[in-house]
Amino acid sequence: MGIRNGLFSGKAKRPIAVHFGNDGVIRMMRLQGMDDQTMQASFEVSVGDQAGLSEAVTCFRSRNTVVSVPSSQVLLTHIRVDCDATDDEVVERLCRGNEGWKNASIRQLPIFTNLRTGTKSKLQQELLCVGVPKKVLEQCVLILEAASLHVQKITVPIHATLRAFDRLYRRESDGSITSMVVDLDQKQTIAMIAHGMNLVVASSLQYKSDTSEKDKWAASPILVPAGGISDEFERRGETQPRGLVQPKQKQLPTSTREDDLLVDELKGCMRHHNSLFPDRVIDRIVFSGSGALHTQRCASVATKLGLSGFIADPSAWISGAEGIASGPVWTTVAGLCLTCSGQSR
Amino acid sequence: MLDMFGAITMNHPFDDFLSQQWHDQKQDRRVFRYGLLLIGLVILTTFSAFTTTMSHWRSVTQSQQSVSARWEDAQQRMYGYVKSERTLRRELAEAKTLNSLLDIVPKSLLLSEMTSVLPTKAYLLSIRIDSRTRPNDEGVSTTMNTIHIVGESPNDVAVSLYVEKLKLSTYFEKVALQYSQKKQGRESRDFAISMEVHNKTRMTQAESSP
User: Fold this and answer.
1) Smallest Cα–Cα separation from A221: which of A146, A131, A296?
2) How many distinct structural domains can be found in chain B?
3) Are B112 and B201 in a shared domain?
4) Which pLDDT score is estimated for A193?
5) ipTM above 0.85, yes or no
6) Which helix (H) or strand (E) element contains residue B191?
7) Is A309's pLDDT higher than 80?
8) Position A221 confidence tier, pLDDT thresholds 50, 70, 90
């Protein structure tokens, strides 16, 4: 290990952020330098188009990649186990509910410790467990290595998406803001609740976004970019947070059965959060993913939940991304990019 | 803590779903590839160094052959030179000896000249000849022979007569009486005379010598 670390500890280039979308599109983006938030290049390539991927790769000045797997392939659950539970016990508990966890690479995040359900019961902890099937990891690595890319990390969209908003929580007091981020997709919808930049609740929802009626991003007249001038730093209270766009409602939101299902599921997440953290109130809801392009629906959901609703647009922090790689669809990729630069934390 | 991109980050459990074993294997493969590359580089460098050395060695061998021929030639010439130098030295020694002989007027002649004019009852106690070689104004070295004689005479008249006669001699010049003093308890007198051998005499002697 010593030799390896010694040999390869030189200053590396900023890697390419690659996100395998549920829509069968691989989105790639790379920023210029470690301290430069300017986009070097971004591409969208269909999964399976190996020639297109190889051609796109030549436009980047790095071969190192950080990858985000499709959210539909991610296993996600909250469990309560004893505080002294071993990793094997946790895996066993997970496999009881779903055999898919057996062949998955599992990571666990302690959400709440020292829980006691009864007077004589043992101390328990709540874990957020995330797993990615090893086959999916292998497939991602094979696809990228076939295009002469070097995979450095593989993460999950729930982590990468949240990292896109880390710049909203640079001040110490920003940690008190509780946000719900909803990644809407035609295959998978994931709801995340974060205290500041720390993820506390994540849940896979049954709801599947219908993107056939989505609004056209950037050309839509119902969207107001937050902050106005792109160089202007956000001032909470005076204007909306930079990187978030608030949908304007031209008419009363039309409620559909699917929307009600989404609202119900989101309310369930909020209840789960409130049971764990009764003193924290959710301040806002942020929509990302391709489903967030349906701004009317997002506005409707936010209104029904009684929260301030925003559409993610992390291109506000990346110069050169406006119009090319902007909008909620690029949230995960931008989050990966900003994580790699060390600017997101 | 520095992550693999050189950025300062905290480790988050969801940062990476690839196992440490996978990273280790990947790094091992890279180390292996770099090792192979290094070995290839070393072999290539060694081969090119060997080729360069061989070509240099060939040129050195050619130079050695050329130098060897020249060395033999120089050695022969050196032998001739040493031989010539020895002959020259011998000749020079002979010439020096001859020259030293040419510089000196035969002592028998000088002694004859000094004793032939010696007054009656006077006799010589000692004769000493000093030779000194000095460069003259023209840079040519000339040898000066100075004769010091000490003798005993019955009186001053005889001494004076002897000095006068020496002055008249063609062999001597700059004849000077050094002292003439009466001996203790006796009538006779001790005297000392210094004089130089005449240059012309020497030249005449040199010209007349074979």
Assistant:
1) A296
2) 2
3) yes
4) 95
5) no
6) strand B189-197
7) yes
8) very low
Return d(Cα A35, Cα A338) in angstroms, integer: 10
Q: Can you tell me the distance from the alpha carbon of B210 to that of B198, in angstroms, rounded to the nearest whole number?
A: 21
Do residue B85 and residue B118 come from a single domain? no
Q: How many CB atoms lie within 10 A of CB B102?
A: 14
Please determine, for residue B127, whether its predicted confidence score (pLDDT) is greater than 90: yes
The verdict on A30 touching B (C-beta cutoff 8 Å) is no
- Rounded to 5°, the CA angle B110-B113-B118 comes to 125
Q: What is the pLDDT of residues B163-191, one digit of tens each?
A: 999 999 988 999 999 999 988 888 889 99
Using an 8 Å Cβ cutoff, are A149 and A66 in contact? no
Least confident of A7-11, A18-22, A269-273, A333-337: A7-11
Contact list, A198 vs chain B (CB under 8 Å): none
Q: What mean pLDDT comes out for the span B29-38?
A: 94
Q: How far apart are CA A239 and CA B60, in angstroms?
A: 84
Helix (H) or strand (E) holding B77: helix B20-103
Q: State residue A243's pLDDT score.
A: 65
Domain that holds residue B139: 106-208
Domain boundary among B103, B132, B154: B103
Segment A121-142 mean pLDDT: 92
Q: Does A69 touch chain B (CB under 8 A)?
A: yes
Give yes or no for A129 touching B (CB within 8 A): no
Which chain A residues are closer than 8 Å to B6 by Cβ? 11-12, 34
Beta carbons within 8 Å of A117's beta carbon, 6+ residues apart? A80, A124
Q: How far is B63 from chain A (nearest CA, A)?
A: 47
Q: Does A156 touch chain B (CB under 8 A)?
A: yes
The pLDDT of residue A172: 76
Q: Is residue B6 one of the residues assigned to a domain?
A: no
Q: All domains of chain A, ordered by start, with CATH?
A: 16-71+138-341 (3.30.420.40), 74-132 (3.30.1490)
Question: What local confidence, expressed as pLDDT, does residue A294 receive?
Answer: 86
* Separation CA A298–CA A246 (nearest Å): 10
Last residue of a domain, one of B57, B86, B103: B103
CA–CA separation, A314 and A165 (whole Å): 7
Using a CB-CB cut-off of 8 Å, the residues of chain B touching A156 are 14, 17
Query: What's the pTM?
Result: 0.64
Chain B residues with at least one Cβ partner in A under 8 Å: 3-10, 12-19, 24, 27-28, 30-31, 34
What is the least distance, in Å, from the CA of A42 to any CA of chain B?
A: 20
Among B10, B13, B18, the residue with its CB nearest the CB of A137 is B18
Please determine, for residue A128, whether its predicted confidence score (pLDDT) is greater than 70: yes
Q: Which one of A5, A8, A90, A200 makes the best mutation probe of the B interface by having the most chain B beta carbons within 10 Å? A: A8
A90, two tokens:
């946790």
Residue B72: the pLDDT is 95
| Spatial separation of the C-alpha atoms in residues A264 and B52, rounded to whole Å | 81
Full DSSP string of A201-243: EEEEES----GGGPPPTTT-TTEE-TTSSTTSPP-BTTBPPTT
What is the model's pLDDT at position A97? 82
